[in-house]
Each structure stands twice: as C-alpha cells, then as structure tokens.
C-alpha cells in the first residue's frame, strides 16, 4: 500500500511551501530561507526536545488550517508548533510578532551583561545578532544585574553564568551526545544557573560541543580565551582521521598558528557533525589537519571582513622590472613590532595568556 | 575650437615696446612686491617655542587612556583595529591576574598595543569605535624622527601617565580633550 504521502501546503509571509506533515513552522520557514525564517536562540535541529524556551521564534498564525481557518488567539512558538494544511503564518509581515520579539530581546538582555568587548563570543554571538536586528537601542532596566559565584568547570571550558540565557542546549548536548551528564540547571526562577552540583570538571569525550551550541558567550573555549578576536582569524575547513568523531572541523588560523578548532556550522548556526575533545582542544597545529580551503562566511558577518573569496592576486611585477632582484625593505615590521613575536606562541599556551607570559619573553 | 570657459584670454603676439624691452619698470614693480612683504605681518611662527592653537577638531597622536584611579581602560576588544582603514593597530590580549586589579580596569586587558604611525592616517575611527573610551586622538603632533623603527608606537609611548602618581604629566598629556 504505497500511498503517496500527502504534503501540507503552508503559506509563510505570502510565500507558499509544501512540507511533510509533522514539520514545525520554523523548519518550514527555513525551507524558504532568508528573512522569513524566524530567529531561534534555543531550538537546535539535532538536539531532541530543544526549543520552546527562548520565545524569539514567535510568529502569528493568521489561519489555523483549511478545515478550521480561524486565527490562533496568541502568537505561537514556531519551533514547537507543527504546520497544518492550509495554514497561513505571518512572521516579518506581522507587526504583532515583531513587536513581541522586541520585548523578548529586552527580556533576554535584562540580566545579560554588556561585556561584549571582553567576551570571546563577540562577532559570532546569536544574541548580538538578535538584539542588533530586533532589539531596541537602550535598556529600561535600572536594577543591578544578577551575579553568580564563579564555577570552574575544568581546564577546557570557561563558564560565565552571567551571560547565560538558559536555553538548555548544553544540557541536551550532554544528555544526548555524551554518556554522562554532569551539569544541569540548578535552582529556579531568577536564581537558576548552569552548574555541576558539587564543583567538578566536565570530563567527557564530547563535552566540548557545549561551546559550539551555546548561543551566547556563557560557555567558551578556555584554550582560546582572550587569545584573539574571531574576526581577526581566518576560518579554514579542515579534516583529519579521528577514531571517535567525523573529524570535520573549522580551523581558526592566524598565519600558520591554529588558535581555535570548532565544528562546522551551517547557515542557521547549527552543527551537524559534532567533534570530539581531542580534535577540539589537543590538535592545535596545522600539520595535524588536512586543509580543504577557506570557510564560506556570510557577507554580513564581521568575520567576513578582509576575507576575499574567488580573487586573483595581481602579478608581481617588481622582480621583473628589477632584473630578478627583490625590493629592498626599508623596515621589516616583524622585527620592530612587539606583537605576534616569533618567540611567543600564544596558541601554544593552555588557557589565557597572563602578564607573566609576556614578561617572560622580554628577558 | 570652442573655448571651454568664458574667461579664456587670447595671448597677444605683438612685439614688445622699447620700455618693455628695458625690463627695468617690470623689475622695479616686482621688487616693490618683495620689499612690501617686509612690512607685512609674518605668517610663520618659530615652532616649537611658539605654537599655533589647534582647531577643536584637530586629530593628533593617539593616547591610551586610564580611568580616574589610574587603571588602564583598554580591554583589547579589537574594535579599533577592525575599524582602522589603514590597518595600523595591532594588539595582544591577556587575562588580569589576581593582584593586578589596580593596574587594569577589566578582567581582560591589552598586554601589547601597537599603532604603526607610518600607516596611521589620523582619521579618528579608532576613537569612534572604542566602547571603553580607552583610545582618543590628542592635540599633539607625532614627533619627527630619522628612523622608521621609532614610529611603531607601543604601550610605552601611547599610555597616558598615571593621574595619581604623575598628575602634572597626566594633565599635560590629557590636554583639553580626554574624558
């Protein structure tokens, strides 16, 4: 009985798309792509049970289905609502949804510290993008932001609880990807925080992936901490034969130095192939990897600045004109500059650099 | 050919008269202009003893600012470097150790901060980009020098003197500009 599956017709922002029954509105909108796809801070395709927490993906449903064309009374979370046949959804065309999103951004930012100049996530932070696109310029909140006791969760991962927006993605990663979850959300309400109940390091072969799934800078790579800003690094697609994981990664290089290794993210900022801790934290040499080529970065990202794709370097004419001689350099900046010195290998230091690391090489 | 402007003058090709051939009246007229300048106001000043007042929007050498307690404001966020159209700014960040709280304002600071003054075009975009009011362009010119190496300014050259330890030097460096 090979009966053909009936496809649901759904109209999102006046664009009609046919999707399989059981698809969420968010995924249907992502099929169309572009501005139509609502932003998502907590939903993650590969993580079961994620979504429904941040409320940034709220959309207006103007008509429930062909059978029952009444509009839904409230805005619905598109990541948790399945499409019906003949559903009419309004996202960017709905003033109500955009206004609600503005309020949600304000709520997310109530306790979020404005320490983007310090935060390592700056430049690739979903909350930065979201507040830039949907938020207001100022805050109306006048009270002190919540603070937490600092938790040390091991040599690889840095936890900044003040930046957390409680999306639960890292909890799902630990649950579904690793064989043992050691951290979770403690307490409730305003006091809820990501922590291990008894202070202990997160040790697991795949626990490094919580860094990639974190939409904000709450969980960052300690081996990359304060080393460089992401927009000064060059992302390269690379792979290696890893017995544990797929080995497909993005290297963040500066010259030959590998500053950071992350999993590859797709256009929605989601990781499809999770990588193991060894690939992420231990393999910080270009020689460890087979480089495939530069990663394509969205033109609107600050990371794409000065990264030119498909360009042809102009022919060097000077040696030809000068009879094969090289031009005489009046000053070699590498010999004068104190920055990027050969004798100090920043990427080789475990954890952030300190004043002692810089004083040491002066002597 | 049609003239491009209405002010075009036709050059006369007629031969010079006797007076013109003598050249003396023309020379006298020219010398009159030359000597006339002796009695006019001198447009030059003898720098550096005398200095002109700068316009309020003058952009001189960069200063790395400190806060009122003398802690460095810069957190090495890299926004000045990414805003710099001449790519003159480079930096390396470090984490503040316990006990260094009186040196650096925030948890992260610039261990190295360099501006290549040979590249800098004094556009002031670094000042505009700075979220921490840490870098601003002062009313001082970049001092001239004979070798290129001395124009790569590090933190030693850029950092403003300590406001509590050296208040006079701080006030001089700060000028009227710093906040």
- Trace the largest sheet of chain B across and list its strands: 2-3-5
CATH architecture of the domain at 8-107 in chain A, by name, is Roll
CATH fold assignment of the domain at 62-174 in chain B: Alpha-Beta Plaits
* Major β-sheet annotation of chain A: 5 strands, mixed
The number of helical runs of chain A is 9
Q: Roughly how many Å is the radius of gyration of chain B?
A: 27 Å
Strand order of the largest sheet of chain A: 2-1-5-3-4
Structure summary, number of beta strands of chain A = 13
Strand content of chain B: 5-15%
Write a short abstract of this structure.
The complex is a heterodimer of chains A (363) and B (179). Chain A is an alpha+beta fold and 363 residues long. Chain A contains nine helices and 13 strands.
Describe this structure in words.
With about 375 residues, chain A is α+β, with helices and mostly antiparallel strands. Chain A contains nine helices and 13 strands. The mean pLDDT of chain A is about 90. Among the domains of chain A are: about 10-105, Roll (Ubiquitin-like (UB roll)); about 125-135 and about 150-220, 2-Layer Sandwich (Alpha-Beta Plaits), CATH 3.30.70.20. In chain A, the strands form four sheets. In chain A, strands 2-1-5-3-4 form a five-stranded mixed beta sheet, with helices on both faces. Chain A has helices at about 25-30, 95-110, 125-135, 170-175, 210-215, 275-280, 320, 335, 355-360; strands at about 10, 15-20, 60-65, 75, 85-90, 155-160, 185, 195, 220, 235-240, 250-255, 255-265, 290-295. Chain B is of the alpha+beta class. Chain B has a domain at about 60-175: Alpha-Beta Plaits (2-Layer Sandwich), CATH 3.30.70. Chain B has helices spanning about 20, 25-35, 80-85, 125-130, 155-160, 165-175, and strands spanning about 60-65, 90-95, 110-115, 135, 150-155. In chain B, strands 2-3-5 form a three-stranded antiparallel beta sheet. In chain B, strands 1-4 form a two-stranded antiparallel ribbon. The mean pLDDT of chain B is about 90.
């Amino acid at each position: 009985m090979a009966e053909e599956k009936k496809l649901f017709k759904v109209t999102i922002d006046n664009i009609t798309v046919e999707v399989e029954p059981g698809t969420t509105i968010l995924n249907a909108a992502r099929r169309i792509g572009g501005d139509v796809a609502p932003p998502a801070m907590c939903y993650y395709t590969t993580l079961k049970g994620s979504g429904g927490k941040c409320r940034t993906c709220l959309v207006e449903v103007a008509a429930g289905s062909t059978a029952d064309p009444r509009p839904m009374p409230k805005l619905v979370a598109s990541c948790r609502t399945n499409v019906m046949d003949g559903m009419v959804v309004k996202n960017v065309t709905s003033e109500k949804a955009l206004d609600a999103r503005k309020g949600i951004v304000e709520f997310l930012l109530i306790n979020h510290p404005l320490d983007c100049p310090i935060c390592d996530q700056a430049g690739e932070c979903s909350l930065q993008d979201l507040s830039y696109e949907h938020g207001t310029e100022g805050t109306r909140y006048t009270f002190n932001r919540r603070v937490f006791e600092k938790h040390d969760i091991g040599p690889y991962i840095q936890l900044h609880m003040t930046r957390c927006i409680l999306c639960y993605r890292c909890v799902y990663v630990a649950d579904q990807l690793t064989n043992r979850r050691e951290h979770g959300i403690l307490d409730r309400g305003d006091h809820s925080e990501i922590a291990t109940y008894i202070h202990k390091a997160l040790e697991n072969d795949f626990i490094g992936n919580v860094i990639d799934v974190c939409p904000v800078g709450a969980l960052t790579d300690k081996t990359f901490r304060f080393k460089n800003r992401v927009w000064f690094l060059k992302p390269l697609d690379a792979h290696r034969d890893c017995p544990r994981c797929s080995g497909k990664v993005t290297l963040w290089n500066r010259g030959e130095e590998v500053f950071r290794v992350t999993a590859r993210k797709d256009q929605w900022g989601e990781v499809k192939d999770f990588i193991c801790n060894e690939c992420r934290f231990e393999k910080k040499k270009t020689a460890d990897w087979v480089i495939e080529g530069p990663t394509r970065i969205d033109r609107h990202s600050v990371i794409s600045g000065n990264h030119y794709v498909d360009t042809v370097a102009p022919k060097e004419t000077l040696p030809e004109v000068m009879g094969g001689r090289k031009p005489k350099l009046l000053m070699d900046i590498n010999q004068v500059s104190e920055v990027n010195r050969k004798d100090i290998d920043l990427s080789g230091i475990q954890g952030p650099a300190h004043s002692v690391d810089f004083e040491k090489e002066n002597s | 050919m049609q003239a491009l402007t209405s002010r075009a003058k036709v050059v006369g090709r007629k031969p010079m008269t006797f007076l013109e051939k003598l050249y003396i009246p023309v020379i006298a007229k020219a010398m009159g202009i030359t000597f006339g300048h002796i009695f006019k106001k001198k447009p030059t000043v003898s720098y550096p003893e005398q200095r002109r007042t700068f316009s309020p929007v003058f952009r001189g050498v960069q200063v790395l600012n400190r806060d009122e307690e003398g802690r460095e404001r810069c957190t090495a966020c890299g926004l000045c470097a990414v805003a710099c159209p001449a790519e003159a700014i480079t930096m390396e960040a470090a984490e503040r150790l316990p006990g260094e709280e009186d040196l650096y304002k925030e948890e992260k600071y610039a261990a190295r901060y360099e501006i290549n003054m040979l590249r800098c075009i004094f556009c002031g975009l670094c000042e505009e980009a700075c979220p921490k009011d840490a870098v601003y362009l002062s009313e001082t010119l970049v001092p001239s020098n004979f070798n290129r190496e001395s124009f790569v300014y590090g933190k030693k050259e850029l950092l403003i003197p300590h406001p509590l330890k050296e208040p006079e030097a701080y006030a001089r460096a700060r000028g009227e500009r710093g906040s």
